Amino acid sequence: MEKTDVSELQVFLPTYNRPELLRKTIQSVLGQTVSVEHICVLDNGGFSETREMLLEFEGCGIEYRDTREFGSWGNLLAAQKFLQCEYALLLHDDDLIHPEYLEIAIQILDADSGFNLLTAHAMPWDIEQDPINLPSLSAKGHLFSSREYATYVYNSAHPSYSLAIYRRAAFKALGVQENFDKYGKWGDVPLMLETIQAGSAVVLADTCGWMGLHAGQDTNDQSTRPPYQAWINREANFFRFMGDDPLTLSGLSFCIMNFRHMRSGYKRRVRQDVSFNQFLAEARTASALTKRGEWTRFLSFRFVQKMLERYLRRYYRKKARSLL
């Protein structure tokens, strides 16, 4: 088999004062079945501990960038500026990738120029333990339009933001600052949807990495909840891609899950700066809660939602096909 050329892949490692975790992430990149030529640590804190740890990898060609000048979303903005290769991976400093992931991912991306994004699923990993071994990858997966990708992630799956590999032109065109100003820390899926646009996304069916679980994760930090408008904007973005036509799979799933998403988002994901009724009123105005979505809540009991989730998981599992 011809060796995969990954010289057109630039791996960025965004970090913020987590040198012990970053060390393991770097090791997972260096342990790939292909040689990665371009690795760049993006440090949004400029911490001396991070620079000192990187001395262990002297001679491995790892570049270091202090990104504090770029602001709160500096690591993403810096990646846009410094990206020179055809593909970019932004692997978080508390995640690991399967040893075969980059080899298979680049083969798939090189096979079709219409793929703007490739990602996969990651399994939870307690950072105090060794990660569970994963089987060899099969290169099976799904090819999605932006509408199909939105439907996939809305209620049946959670592809990893950290494992996402972007095509250069699509990544360079992203409005990173505007995206996270609008969606806060829930801006990962909107950013990936913006990346896909008129192109396609690939989602590998296999589990291709590990997502570190630890006390310092921002996702679980209740003190950094964004304003409630962020969740309204996020749900309105799903509606923009999916619609609420119950005669389509995307529209039907939006209708069934719409009110549930709004309720759970208000309770668990954002700052409750207004009453729930006021939250819903603003959601209606923004098309984050549609009339069909609101009325369907009287029919979509919990067991209906669970049945839809189970059906979609089976549906997508059966539709997975070889991508090479």
Any overview of this molecule?
The chain has 13 helices and 10 strands. β2, α2 and β3 (62-66) form a beta-alpha-beta unit. It is an alpha/beta fold and 324 residues long. The protein has helices at residues 19-30, 48-54, 74-82, 101-111, 146-155, 168-172, 176-183, 188-196, 228-242, 249-268, 276-285, 291-296, 302-319; strands at residues 9-15, 38-43, 62-66, 87-90, 95-97, 115-126, 140-144, 165-167, 200-213, 321-322. The protein folds into 2 domains: 9-219, Spore Coat Polysaccharide Biosynthesis Protein SpsA, Chain A; 225-322, no CATH class. 43% of the residues lie in helices and 19% in strands. Strands 1, 2, 3, 4, 5, 6, 7, 8, 9 and 10 form a 10-stranded mixed β-sheet that branches.
The mean pLDDT is 93
- CATH-assigned fold name of the largest domain: Spore Coat Polysaccharide Biosynthesis Protein SpsA, Chain A
Coarse morphology: globular
- State the major sheet: 10 strands, mixed
CATH class of the largest domain: Alpha Beta
Order of helices and strands: EHEHEHEEHEEHEHHHEHHHHHE
Q: How many independent structural domains?
A: 2
Highlighted features:
single chain, Spore Coat Polysaccharide Biosynthesis Protein SpsA, Chain A, ten-stranded mixed β-sheet, 13 helices, 43% helix, 19% strand
Write a brief caption for the model.
The chain is an alpha/beta fold and 324 residues long. It is 43% helix and 19% strand.
